[in-house]
Amino acid sequence: MAPGADIAVGELVRSRYGADVVDRLVDPMLGGVYAGRADQLSLRATMPQLARTAETEHTLRGAVRAAQALSKRVPGRPIFAAVGGGMSRLIGAAATAARARISLGLPVREIVRSGSRWHLVLGPAPEPQTDDVDAVILAVPAKPAARLLIDVAPAAAAAIGGLEYASVALVGIALPPGTPLPELSGFLVPPGEGTLVKAATFFTRKWPHLGGPEAPVIVRASLGRAGEEERLHLSDQALLEIAHKELGELAGGELPPAVASWIQRWGGGLPQYAPGHTDRVRAAREALPPGLAVAGAALDGVGIPVCVASGEAAADDVSKYLEAL
Ligand SMILES: Cc1cc2nc3c(=O)[nH]c(=O)nc-3n(C[C@H](O)[C@H](O)[C@H](O)COP(=O)(O)OP(=O)(O)OC[C@H]3O[C@@H](n4cnc5c(N)ncnc54)[C@H](O)[C@@H]3O)c2cc1C
Fold it and tell me: Exposed, middle or buried, 143 (CB in 10 Å: 0-12/13-18/19+)?
């Protein structure tokens, strides 16, 4: 691949290994992470290391091997990690470490340049509040980011605002203790199967500290793919029933009735980076005035570690700007 070029993951893999590998392997994997389709997702944005190694290696196999060699994964350490006590503790810990003034429930509605500073309009339209700040880091999804940037950085707003998102719903099902499941931590489902369930995690197997012989067996199903939002336009009860039925069919046998179940919808939760995304992000950042930075999954990738790195890079940029004032 030419240096700096981009291509849809599906296009690259299909040209080397054929449609079956895309449909049965790559699509389910990308569906699991992005709820997206391999033919629409950018190689450079979703697999940056492979995009880099593909510039110098002559075969896709060589590029994959070279990308794997660059991986920082420690052999023997599990791929997955969780925060003890639940992910929400990460937010609390970050907030405490920041020692910052944090205002919740006050969406920013407007950002206005005010001399060398920024004037923010916050909160509900009938009762607006204002705040004047030295610098701004926008870490919000693409659509609100574009709305807020439209007057202060129109080119950046245009570059960011076109990003599409996929919606998903997560269904949790608690089955009676001892319910047999395949010896897996879960599975991914190729789009061609036509099911609403696109992935399942056998929670109590993936996270054994949550399980035990007396504990319910918990399965989490992920429903919905990019471009199929209307399939989620059903009641919670209907989605729970579909998930329960499909999980049984996919796992190889009817499941017993759930002892408890719950659903969490993530409307527009997962960005769909089309080929050229990283160029658009670079153009957006170049079009930002000093003292205004952008960060987060709309720009630099999904996944909490990437989002943390993106936020830290934005904070560094803004700190350098403030120190130079
Ligand atoms: C179902 C699902 C499962 C996932 N699983 C994993 C996983 O297992 N591991 C992993 O690493 N990642 C996972 N991710 C991805 C990860 O959660 C996200 O990529 C990451 O949280 C994005 O962080 P962010 O700060 O960029 O954006 P967000 O978390 O979307 O935060 C943006 C914030 O901006 C706020 N906001 C919007 N507009 C305004 C405004 N005008 N003013 C003020 N605030 C505003 C929003 O309310 C929101 O709180 C998952 C995502 C989903 C949807």
Answer: middle
